[in-house]
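Weekly structure sync, notes
Attendees: PL, DS, HV (note-taker this week)

Item 1: Sulfhydryl oxidase
DS walked through the input record. Source organism listed as Blumeria graminis f. sp. hordei. Sequence as pasted into the shared doc:
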Amino acid sequence: MTEDSWKRVVRPDGSSSETPTQTSAPAVVLGKDGKPCRSCSSSAAFSSWVTQTKKVTDGARLRQPSPGCPPDVEALGRSSWTLLHTMTANYPTQPTPNQQTNMAHFLHLFAQFYPCWVCAADFEKYIEVNGVRSASRDDLGRWMCEAHNAVNKKLGKPSFDCGKWEERWRTGWKDGSCD
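Item 1 (cont.): predicted structure, written out as C-alpha cells:
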C-alpha cells in the first residue's frame, strides 16, 4: 500500500485519523454533528465519501459540482475572499470611528457564521491574535491580504504581495489588462 492510499478525516474537536483506502481519496471534514460537512470539504472529497458510503464500485469519476449545487469549500473560499477583498477596496480611505467599529464587528460576525466550521475557527483565531486593522482603507487592505496569505500558507499556496493589494482589488493592474 502506498503512502497516498490513506484517507485523512478531521473531526470537529480538531483530532484526525488516517485510514487505508483502496484508492487515493481527498480528505473529508466532518461537521460538528459527526457527518461529512459539505461546506468544509472539497467537492472531490464529498463525492468520494458519497461514493464510498453508497458502495459504488463502478469507478464513478469525481467531478466538479454543477452550477446549481451547493458550493464546496474551494468555491466558498474563492467567493468569500472576493467579497471580503472587494469590500475592503471600497472601504473609505478615512473611515469614521463608527465605520471602523462596524467593519471589525462585521468581520467577527463573518467568522462566527462562516459555513465551514474549520475555516471559521481559523479566521476567528486569526482575528483574536492579530486584531482587525480598520483605521484606513490601506490598513484594512493590508490586513485582509495578510489574513488571506495566512490561509494560503496553511493550504500550501503561494503568498500574494500585499503591496499590490489595491492594484489587484481596486484599481486594476498597471499593465492595463483590466481595462
